[in-house]
Amino acid sequence: MIEPLKGYDLAGRVAVITGAGSGIGKATALTLAAVGVTVIGGDIDQAAVELTKEEIAQSGGQARAVRTDVTSRADVDALVDGAQAEFGRVDIMGNVAGIPHNKMIADTTDDEFERILAINLKSVFYGVQAAFRVMMPQKSGNIINLSSGAIDTPAPTLACYAMTKAAVAMLTKTAAVEGGPHGIRVNGIAPGVIHTNFSRHNFVDEEGSVVPEKVEQYKKRFGAMAPLGRVGEAQDVANAILYLVSDGAGFMTGQILRPNGGVSMP
């Protein structure tokens, strides 16, 4: 008899997650830890990723927190290599860290362009390389790269952001082809509108403080665009990631999964 839930048992596996201090990265770290995965979380915000580690520990899980600047290849390598050194393997690599960018093409400076390339694209490439180095000898592993619904529909001010996320999608597909013969699956997530601090520019005042009324307006406005009638939450994306890294998704690779309520982000 087939045991349908056996494919979703991740106990004993080891995951490295970038951007684990907040938003989708944190939700993913907490979700994987809840099903028995040891989580090594990296984030440039040391205090934030330490809080994630503490939450996991309080729930009986195992985690490590590492300050990581994902624009630094050395930092990303150290994050992954450190996980392997301590736990003997890395089963899951989640390249989640990223930043938004909202500016017209004509107004974007070279510094802004280089920054978003470094954080949203180069860091993912570094993460895939580091994971391959560990996973290829293992002959197993799962890599998840965070793309975006912005890759599907052009919109003003999203050129730089969408370009990086479109490149992440193609990197994901290519890495799936290269990793497949080594037992490595590589998939991407392209979320729609998700209510996290990533979208806070939609609901803060001039001082950067969250305005509850604006939050409700944001949810109502963007929720109305989706057939499901709501915006997404970080947990919605974490659930999709949980599926992709499980053995239940064992025939899924090179895919870009879109948790978006039925509508692309723009």
Please outline what is shown here:
The protein has 266 residues and is α/β, with parallel strands linked by helices.
Characterise this structure.
- The chain has helices at residues 23-34, 46-58, 73-87, 110-138, 159-179, 212-223, 234-245, and strands at 14-18, 38-43, 63-67, 92-95, 141-146, 184-189, 194-195, 232-233, 256-257.
- Helix 1 packs parallel to helix 2 (46-58), helix 1 (23-34) crosses helix 7 (234-245) and helix 3 packs parallel to helix 4 (110-138).
- The mean pLDDT is 94.
- It has a single domain (10-196, 233-257), classed as Rossmann fold, CATH 3.40.50.
- Helix content is 43%, strand content 14%.
- The protein is α/β, with parallel strands linked by helices and 266 residues long.
- The chain is built from seven helices and nine strands.
- The strands form two sheets. It has a seven-stranded parallel sheet, with helices on both faces. A two-stranded parallel ribbon has the order 7-8.
Write the layout of secondary structure elements.
Elements: E1 14-18, H1 23-34, E2 38-43, H2 46-58, E3 63-67, H3 73-87, E4 92-95, H4 110-138, E5 141-146, H5 159-179, E6 184-189, E7 194-195, H6 212-223, E8 232-233, H7 234-245, E9 256-257
Parallel strand pairs: 1-2, 1-4, 2-3, 4-5, 5-6, 6-9, 7-8
Helix pairs in contact: 1-2, 1-7, 3-4, 4-5
State the helicity in percent bands.
40-55%
Largest sheet, if any? 7 strands, parallel
The H-level CATH homologous superfamily, spelled out, is NAD(P)-binding Rossmann-like Domain
Q: How many strands?
A: 9
The name CATH uses for the topology is: Rossmann fold
Mean pLDDT, to the nearest integer, reads 94
How many domains would you count in the coordinates? 1
Strand order of the largest sheet: 3-2-1-4-5-6-9
Shape: globular
